[in-house]
């Protein structure tokens, strides 16, 4: 068979498959919220999506006008469509996220842009931690992230100032470290000569025995505490240096220090705003469901900690109230750090309530719920 004929018959096979999927969707899918999965003929989960009205969404796949459209590309690769109904669009959204995280479907990953638009500050693990600006929260389940933030470039600039003022490292992750309290190995390691940052006093020099591990970690903690709004010493150091420069009539130097302070202040403001956003996402959210399948979600700091059928009876109310009390009572540090595996959920919830602010009327604040429902 010639190449042209082969490609014509492959395309005819795809058309036939798409047509049969369309007939199946028309015959079987109902107008209800739910999650769907596009499966390849080889059984690979290609794409996971959600819809408030599954039938309309799935039929939309067959109306794509151009083969390059996202929906046309997905349906032409699919050999099968599977779907599950969920009580509400919100429930479907949460399930969609869980499935995407579990299966990482190829076409979701390729087409997903959202998280990549944001920048995060990652704290690297290890003896000499450092801050790194990354796009998206990645898949590093062991990392600790601050964010999301807009503007990776400004973040980098501000972190550079913070590193300089506190003497923190900003070198490659695989840079060998050699702390002053570190035992020499039987065959001594070749020490890396200090880089320029150590020479000019902008890094404590954990790579050249310039500092003990404990001192470096203590200094790193100062940086974290500053970002979390618990202390101001980096700003105070810069302010004092600026005033001294000013007294010495070194106005150019004083202006540079003022700019550095402003970058740090603006970084701190971003953290304050983020902390407020995270803290304000703590409540019980009750969502009306299809056919009376209402659900209550206990949300703390932007993460769903429990999901229960919305209570109808006094007993059910008190079950939810005690669950909410359990979840809200342990004091959690008012921190801006989010474990990597929870970043997506936090972003999803904050964008849900931003998009549908009226939904906040269905929420009961963390502090009020147990009292209100057991009264
Ligand atoms: S002095 Fe050493 S630890 Fe500090 S930034 Fe330079 S290479 Fe990294």
Structure notes:
By secondary structure, the chain is α+β, with helices and mostly antiparallel strands. The chain has three domains: 99 residues, 3-Layer(aba) Sandwich (GIY-YIG endonuclease); 116 residues, no CATH class; 94 residues, no CATH class. The protein is built from 13 helices and eleven strands. The protein has a four-stranded antiparallel beta sheet with strand order 5-4-6-10. Strands 9-8-7-11 form a four-stranded antiparallel beta sheet. The site of iron/sulfur cluster has 12 residues, from α7.
Strand content is 15-25%
The helix tally amounts to 13
Distance N terminus to C terminus? Answer: 79 Å
Mean pLDDT score? 85
Which ligands, by name, code or SMILES, are bound?
iron/sulfur cluster
Q: What is the molecular shape?
A: globular
User: Helical percent range?
Assistant: 40-55%
Low-confidence stretches: 186-190
Biggest sheet statistics: 4 strands, antiparallel
Structurally, the number of domains stands at 3
Order of helices and strands: HEEHHEHHEEEHHHHHEEEHEHEH
Number of strands: 11
Q: Strand order, biggest sheet? A: 5-4-6-10
Taking Cα atoms only, what radius of gyration do you get, to the nearest Å? 27 Å
Q: Which class of secondary structure composition applies to the elements?
A: alpha+beta
